[in-house]
Automatic annotation (TrEMBL):
Keyword Oxidoreductase on entry: no
PROSITE patterns the record matches: SMB_1, SMB_2, TSP1
Keyword Glycoprotein tagged: yes
PANTHER family referenced in this protein's UniProt entry, alphabetically: RPE-SPONDIN, SOMATOMEDIN-B AND THROMBOSPONDIN TYPE-1 DOMAIN-CONTAINING PROTEIN
UniProt protein name: SBSPO protein
The entry's keywords: Disulfide bond, Glycoprotein, Signal
Gene from which this protein is expressed: Sbspon_1
Sequence ranges assigned to domain SMB in this UniProt record: 12-67
Organism the protein comes from: Polyodon spathula (North American paddlefish)
Length: 252
């Protein structure tokens, strides 16, 4: 009779019925069959799948619900003016993950950028110093913003042969900095010089090597990761770039 009563109690209170707990909760348990077919204490908390001690009905009663996030906000402006820096975009959590569902992805992303107008409204593009480069994708957004204020100067394309680069370039994994992984020693890359990076007086971009021949070692730096930098030699100046997209960049 006692055994029957215990069986009835387990039947009513066993499994995960009425129990679905967040995180690791040792009190969120029952006495019933586990998913690994062992009878005893089983759990219905958010980590039981990782520890292998879920009650047999956990996946049915407490289905996994992944994190849901909002759409990305628009990109912010550059954090600083007249020097390489970063811009930011963010998103928010609309639903927290439940029952071992996929965790939330990053809620903030940063990407390199540079503004060419100071807080006083003065144009501040330079022509000396290392070349600052970024992904060709950035130029699409920049050109959209500049259409109403910049001249129609189409600019030009400069081809370089990469001589050296730091190991930080190939180790970069941030979503908007992965373009740095395509920088390789010995490769020929194309870099576009266009407004607003182009100096209106000299019609050149900082570090583009316009005044040097191919024997001159020139320095470049990736915007978004100051540790990704190296050297290259100028190959030629052309009107239109012909490099593959992954080997095409823009002076910033």
């Amino acid at each position: 009779l006692l055994a029957v009563l215990l069986w009835l109690v387990n039947l009513v209170e066993g499994g995960c019925s009425g129990k679905c707990c967040k995180g690791r909760d040792p009190t969120c348990s029952s006495t019933d069959w586990r998913m690994d077919r062992v009878f005893g204490t089983c759990f219905c908390d958010g980590t039981c799948k990782h520890t292998g001690d879920c009650c047999y009905d956990y996946t049915q009663v407490c289905p996994a619900q992944p994190c849901i996030v909002s759409e990305w906000s628009p990109w912010s402006g550059c954090a600083l003016q007249c020097k390489p820096t970063y811009r930011v975009r963010r998103r928010s959590i609309e639903r927290e993950p439940m029952n071992g569902g996929d965790p939330c992805p990053p809620l903030e992303e940063k990407a390199g950028c540079m503004e060419y107008v100071s807080y006083q409204g003065q144009h501040c593009a330079q022509t000396h110093g290392p070349a600052f480069i970024t992904t060709l994708e950035y130029n699409i957004e920049r050109r959209k913003r500049a259409l109403s204020t910049e001249s129609e100067d189409a600019g030009f394309c400069m081809e370089f042969k990469l001589e050296s680069l730091s190991q930080q370039c190939t180790m970069e994994t941030q979503p908007h900095a992965r373009w740095m992984q395509y920088l390789r020693e010995g490769y020929t890359v194309c870099v576009i010089c266009q407004p607003p990076a182009m100096n209106s007086a000299s019609h050149s971009c900082q570090g583009d090597g316009t005044d040097f021949d191919g024997n001159k070692i020139l320095h470049w730096q990736a915007v978004g990761n100051p540790r990704c930098r190296g050297t290259w030699r100028k190959v030629q100046r052309v009107e239109q770039c012909s490099c593959p997209v992954v080997h095409s960049f823009v002076f910033i």
